[in-house]
Amino acid sequence: MSLSPIVAGAWRLADWTWNAAERLAWIEGCLDLGVTSFDHADIYGGYRVEELFGEALALSPSVRQRLQLVTKCGIRLCHPARSAHRIKHYDTSAPHIIASAEESLRLLGTDYLDVLLLHRPDPLMDADEVARAFDELRTSGKVRYFGVSNFSPAQYDVLQSRTPLVTNQIEWHPLHRAPLTDGTLDHCQRRRIRPMIWSPLAGGTLFTGEEAAARRVRGMLQQIAIARGVSAATIAFAWLLRHPSRPIPIAGSGRLEAMREAVAATTIRLDAQEWTEIYTAGTGRDVP
Q: Where do the domains of the chain lie, and which CATH numbers do they carry?
């Protein structure tokens, strides 16, 4: 699997109320910054985002050869677009995985997906059945690589024992530090897989939250940013990139300047003291 160091998240694409040409301009702007990978899920935007992205790509089909498409499946939402769903639930059955992948291909207007992830752990997941679905999609050339999202190390290993996986997409930022202590990032290093990171800025809470931890982290990010001559957002991304598991953060902004700030983090390596200052700002206490 080869993804750009920063991935563009399309989760909010439907909220930006752009026309197809404006969506294409955003995609091309990301590509110009070196952000060549785009993260989707079948459910994003009420099952609309993949289609909106596909409409933009259709305006310039050659753009597809310059980018990588990541999408996720396995969640069934209660939504007018899926009236048969009585309750939000998970579905990792082979028919659902294959049908979801084929629907994503249709909506995105492409004949292959670079990476397909299971969106959430499914208590009823049959690893052998998932492996059969992945093998069928891989053999047919419809999906190149497979991974998971929000899986624990044990859940990852169950599926990995049946089929090759390339990533685990997880939430991680200075206000949510559990992956550092619950074995998730240790597992990534042991397996030599690069985790994808969703919500790297805590959904904006790093810069808008009023709770004590958010204020402490924000102050430390700003302090280091001034010393480094970059933005606080760039330092927040650099904090993630400093980890030896070689994370791949997802920046979900429609502002190209915000994408540029994320990319700038790839040129910065925080030292251990700077990294720990941000970490302890989040915990509110010194390391043991």
A: 7-166 (3.20.20.100)
